[in-house]
Amino acid sequence: MSLAQQWRDARPKVAGLHFDSGACSRQSFAVIDATATHARHEAEVGGYVAADAAAPVLDAGRAAVAALTGLAASDVIYTSGSGHALELLLGSWVGERTLACLPGEFGPNLAIMAANGFQVRALPVDSDGRLVVDDAARALAADPPALVHLTALASQRGVAQPLAEIVAVCRAEGIPIVVDAAQALGHLDCNVEPDAVYSSSRKWIAGPRGVGVLAIRPELASRLEPPVPPADWGVPMSVLEKLAQGEHNEAARIGYSVALGEHLAAGPEAVRARLAEVGRLSRQVLADTSGWRVVEPADEPTAITTLEPTDGADPVSVRAWLIAERGIVTTACELARAPFEMTKPVLRISPHVDTTAEDLDQFAGALRDASNR
Ligand SMILES: *Cc1c(COP(=O)(O)O)cnc(C)c1O
């Protein structure tokens, strides 16, 4: 059976078209059942007893993240999402707070960096917003920041960044590199052993909302000082134990672990190849849509395609119309999503592996109708 068919059969039938995996994918029956079953178990034996019993499932999720990133399972903690992971990491930083990132950095990440007192400088990019590795290597060598933060795949643009190459540069320069894999995990190859990496459950891995992951190599973890509990209290907890504290939705973590397991079972390479194919097909079908310009190069190996209005269409109202009139879910990306890169709001589609050429044709027709309404 094809990967597309397998993926479709594994989840509830979609109402309309779901082209919004960059925001939130559709969960499988197995993920939904695991989450609900855990809630039931909590009611039967008590929430903390149920959590102890489910520990091996959570360990399996950590092992899956380790397999996808090149870190160890013991380096991985669960968070409530990507933003939470970045806050935990930057809030524990000791020493100089300078950081280099892409000009297309995610707006909410820039806000977390600023709130934690980080001075941010831009890495060099080409006209697509893609990192120019050689120029970056020179800039980093000449004036090294305390860390490099790389968003491997952006929310507002489906351009795959040269992740392995910049990790190698940072390693050679001795600069820690932190990877935002919110859009990249389960989508691009993230098995590059960065110093830290984080992601969200609900995007391409198709787990529940409200959960995410943060992995930190021991060398970097040993340099962090989480503020709670204060270091001088001498509480015998590791850095990761301190970062992992706090109330959370255990059932959601269990669902995420199951989704990670399903991703590994489907074959990360096969998923990546299919997502790249869906992206190419999307850009082919949408290339000549009047009133819109496809932003990404046609062969970009990602399933994120963005459309910039060339005739004054408003992505926010087009998105609302597509949902209300056609049952098609997309994303409108406004400038705040990447304030130093975006000059116009865009309409984003982020279809998963089950998407067919007919689905894309249907979307292209709906977009024409939206523009002619
Ligand atoms: C969605 C997203 C985030 C934030 O993830 P949350 O889980 O909502 O905190 C961060 N970075 C990128 C690139 C994203 O797409």
From TrEMBL:
<dbReference type="InterPro" id="IPR000192">
    <property type="entry name" value="Aminotrans_V_dom"/>
</dbReference>
<comment type="similarity">
    <text>Belongs to the class-V pyridoxal-phosphate-dependent aminotransferase family. EgtE subfamily.</text>
</comment>
<dbReference type="InterPro" id="IPR015422">
    <property type="entry name" value="PyrdxlP-dep_Trfase_small"/>
</dbReference>
<keyword id="KW-0456">Lyase</keyword>
<protein>
    <recommendedName>
        <fullName>Probable hercynylcysteine sulfoxide lyase</fullName>
        <ecNumber>4.4.-.-</ecNumber>
    </recommendedName>
</protein>
<comment type="pathway">
    <text>Amino-acid biosynthesis; ergothioneine biosynthesis.</text>
</comment>
<dbReference type="InterPro" id="IPR015424">
    <property type="entry name" value="PyrdxlP-dep_Trfase"/>
</dbReference>
<dbReference type="InterPro" id="IPR015421">
    <property type="entry name" value="PyrdxlP-dep_Trfase_major"/>
</dbReference>
<keyword id="KW-0663">Pyridoxal phosphate</keyword>
<feature type="domain" description="Aminotransferase class V">
    <location>
        <begin position="19"/>
        <end position="363"/>
    </location>
</feature>
<comment type="function">
    <text>Probably catalyzes the conversion of hercynylcysteine sulfoxide to ergothioneine.</text>
</comment>
<dbReference type="Pfam" id="PF00266">
    <property type="entry name" value="Aminotran_5"/>
</dbReference>
<dbReference type="InterPro" id="IPR027563">
    <property type="entry name" value="EgtE"/>
</dbReference>
<dbReference type="GO" id="GO:0016829">
    <property type="term" value="F:lyase activity"/>
</dbReference>
<feature type="modified residue" description="N6-(pyridoxal phosphate)lysine">
    <location>
        <position position="203"/>
    </location>
</feature>
